[in-house]
């Protein structure tokens, strides 16, 4: 019998992670590289990407790009495939939350949120799928949210896109899983990232959120490593179309 730990080994795999300059995207790059993958991080801030590359080493490269720029999609696909070959794994961690209330949502804020949070994951995946089909193996990991199923103040645009991510994930699974490509989503609870700075800057609010979990605390970046490696590896070979909530039981209460 093969060692079950080998199911999580990503040696020989190539991964692409969007939103890699900070937060959960940055953590995903570190986790995937530690499991043996060669990883290309994508974000708009070159200085942050360069620091990440320096920290992790030769198995990480990066591309400076706006993944919501659909006109540059073909160039982006070429760029992320250049360092190590076409990605076997795509992790869509890039996202935005304008925090505009329903009465204050602007067309620009709405369109920006939709473009980055849901259109970019679909079109980039669509562009990378042919190479995955050719190999008969691929992993797509989208980022859902507590707001996939819950309504938060100031989150109408963000929550709408994150609810859409759950269905997008199911539809991707239906379309591509027969080719050996699984599609799943991770739904983080409250983790310390740039998107949640306002939450963690208020100790009382952060404490209230922690109390609402079953575990009794907010997330730590390392809490994402296991679920990410699971969904990106052979360990999840018969799991597709699912949203895994990594929220300390917040949505269970």
Automatic annotation (TrEMBL):
Keywords annotated in UniProt: Oxidoreductase
GO BP: fatty acid biosynthetic process
Superkingdom assignment: Bacteria
Gene Ontology molecular function, alphabetical: oxidoreductase activity, acting on the CH-OH group of donors, NAD or NADP as acceptor; quinone binding
SUPFAM superfamilies, per database record: NAD(P)-binding Rossmann-fold domains (SSF51735)
PANTHER family for the chain: 3-OXOACYL-[ACYL-CARRIER-PROTEIN] REDUCTASE, SHORT-CHAIN DEHYDROGENASES/REDUCTASES FAMILY MEMBER
Family designation: Belongs to the short-chain dehydrogenases/reductases (SDR) family.
Listed name of the protein: Gluconate 5-dehydrogenase
Organism field: Ruegeria faecimaris
């Amino acid at each position: 019998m093969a060692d079950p730990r080998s199911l999580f080994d990503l040696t020989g795999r190539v991964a692409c992670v969007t939103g890699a300059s900070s937060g959960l995207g940055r953590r995903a790059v570190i986790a995937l590289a530690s499991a043996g993958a060669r990883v290309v991080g994508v974000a708009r801030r070159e200085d942050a990407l360069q620091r990440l590359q320096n920290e992790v080493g030769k198995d990480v490269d990066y591309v400076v790009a706006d993944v919501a720029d659909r006109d540059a999609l073909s160039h982006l696909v070429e760029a992320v495939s250049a360092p190590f070959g076409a990605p076997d794994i795509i992790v869509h961690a890039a996202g935005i939350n304008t925090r505009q209330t329903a009465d204050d949502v602007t067309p620009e804020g709405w369109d920006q949120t939709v473009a980055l949070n849901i259109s970019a994951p679909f079109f980039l995946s669509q562009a990378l799928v042919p190479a995955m089909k050719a190999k008969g193996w691929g992993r797509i990991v989208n980022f859902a949210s507590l707001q996939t199923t819950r309504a938060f103040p100031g989150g109408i645009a963000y929550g709408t896109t994150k609810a859409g991510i759950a269905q997008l994930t199911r539809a991707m699974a239906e379309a591509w899983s027969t080719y050996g490509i699984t599609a799943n989503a991770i739904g983080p609870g409250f983790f310390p990232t740039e998107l949640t700075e306002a939450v963690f800057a208020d100790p009382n609010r952060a404490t209230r959120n922690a109390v609402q979990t079953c575990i009794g605390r907010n997330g730590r970046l390392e809490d994402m490593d296991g679920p990410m490696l699971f969904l990106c590896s052979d360990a999840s070979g018969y799991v597709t179309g699912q949203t895994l909530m990594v929220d300390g039981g917040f949505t269970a209460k």
